[in-house]
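Listing 4. Sequential folding, example run.
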Amino acid sequence: MKINKIGGNKTKNENSSLIRNKLKVRIQLKSVLSLHSIITFGQFKGRTIREAIEQDPRYVNWLTEEKKMFLLDNEAYIYYRREYEDLMSRMTFIDKNELNEKLPWE
């Protein structure tokens, strides 16, 4: 009987098992939030995603796009993008430059 040795006294199957165990990827599941989801932390703690979007869509942008803390469902994402783009279109050049400074919740 011929045994294929790859490393040390381990067979090919044993090495494959070790490789699979070493290559396990830790997957971090993110919550998908709706407009009615309650924020449980930060300056909007206890408020809904809708309220946070209406009061400061930049905060939701920071959480979703920069920190990647959670995902929005389709309805919430469309609402957020509309509010965020509306805010950006109303801002002056000077206001937009101030956005490059550190955000108050960072």
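-- end of first protein; second protein begins --
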Amino acid sequence: MNISGRTLKPLLARYPLGPSTAHFILYDHLDFPDDKVQIRKGGSASGQNGMRSCLDVLGRKNAGEVFQVRIGIDRPTNSVSRSVHGSASPLGKTRAVSVLGASELTPNRL
């Protein structure tokens, strides 16, 4: 079980959710090809355990205030566990940095 949500507690204490802030959670998605990125506000974890853990920590009230950025990693033909828990590919790292640095990722433009 992925317990990524534990990392949110200290971050939310320092950077609380509010109407003037935007919070993004980036995570991998096996069922998207590696060239697809989806951004949405709120929503379910779509079967991703790390995101489910984050939503549990956020609680129902705040979960809808967070932008989810799903980055496709393509379902591997071999071990899913090895692919998901291993290092990101160079393409995946570049894509994550591009998404994080994109100035158009503001609540007014989504």
